[in-house]
């Protein structure tokens, strides 16, 4: 068959569409700079507000509650919604509505994943709050729990530090203390 088709053997690299796309992204970024700046200002105001509310709530709670751990936990619970709302408003103002929706929707899934992954940490944290409320012992008391006998040195959100009669330190997880029999 004889025809007049010509086959061009060389490959042509046309990068014009890539450059056009890059120019469009740059133009969109430059147009959003004022929104990003205003959003960052709002985020800074949210940070200052969260810091102020944390200080005030901690002072108020420390006066009303004699337990320092419980007052820290409660003040964190007061501050957390302020930070989340501030982050959401920042994403909305900055024009990142898809990211804001993803953050809002992914919070539940992420919470579930983190909850499963950090089950022991969450269990010890909750046990420390319950121990702080019930107060089965105080710092300096001689207690025995799960075969460990010692003087209570400190109670943290993770565990209770005991100094044994021999002078050794033993760290007992709060969840174990809450579930076990404590001799005081």
What fraction of residues sit in β-strands?
5-15%
The main pleated sheet reads as: 5 strands, antiparallel
Count of runs of 4 or more consecutive helical residues: 5
Output mean pLDDT: 82
Q: Approximately how much helix is present in the residues?
A: 55-70%
**Distance N to C terminus:** 103 Å
- Element string (H = helix, E = strand): HHHHEEEEHE
Low-pLDDT stretches are none
Q: What is the spatial order of strands in the main beta sheet? A: 4-3-2-1-5
- Briefly note the structural class of the backbone: alpha+beta
Describe this structure in words.
The protein has 184 residues and is an alpha+beta fold. 64% of the residues lie in helices and 14% in strands. The protein is built from 5 helices and 5 strands. The chain has helices spanning 16-64, 68-93, 97-117, 119-134, 174-179, and strands at 142-145, 148-155, 159-164, 169-173, 182-183. It has a 5-stranded antiparallel β-sheet. Helix 1 runs antiparallel to helix 2 (68-93) and helix 2 runs antiparallel to helix 3.
Features:
64% helix; alpha+beta; 184 residues; 5 helices; single chain
Q: Can I get a quick summary?
A:
By secondary structure, this protein is of the alpha+beta class.
What's the topology here?
Layout: H1 16-64, H2 68-93, H3 97-117, H4 119-134, E1 142-145, E2 148-155, E3 159-164, E4 169-173, H5 174-179, E5 182-183
Antiparallel strand pairs: 1-2, 1-5, 2-3, 3-4
Helix pairs in contact: 1-2, 2-3
């Amino acid at each position: 068959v004889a025809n007049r088709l010509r086959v061009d053997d060389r490959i042509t690299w046309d990068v014009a569409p890539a450059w056009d796309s890059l120019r469009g992204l740059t133009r969109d970024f430059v147009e959003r700079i004022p929104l990003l700046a205003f959003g960052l200002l709002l985020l800074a105001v949210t940070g200052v507000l969260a810091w102020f509310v944390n200080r005030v709530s901690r002072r108020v709670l420390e006066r009303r509650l004699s337990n320092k751990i419980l007052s820290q936990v409660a003040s964190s619970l007061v501050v957390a919604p302020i930070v989340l709302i501030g982050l959401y408003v920042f994403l909305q103002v900055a024009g990142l509505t898809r990211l804001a929706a993803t953050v809002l929707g992914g919070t539940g899934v992420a919470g579930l994943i983190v909850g499963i992954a950090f089950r022991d940490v969450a269990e010890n944290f909750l046990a420390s709050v319950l121990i702080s409320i019930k107060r089965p012992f105080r710092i300096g008391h001689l207690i025995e729990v799960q075969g460990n006998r010692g003087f209570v040195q400190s109670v943290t959100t993770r565990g209770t530090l005991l100094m044994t009669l021999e002078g050794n330190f033993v760290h007992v997880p709060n969840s174990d203390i809450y579930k076990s029999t404590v001799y005081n």
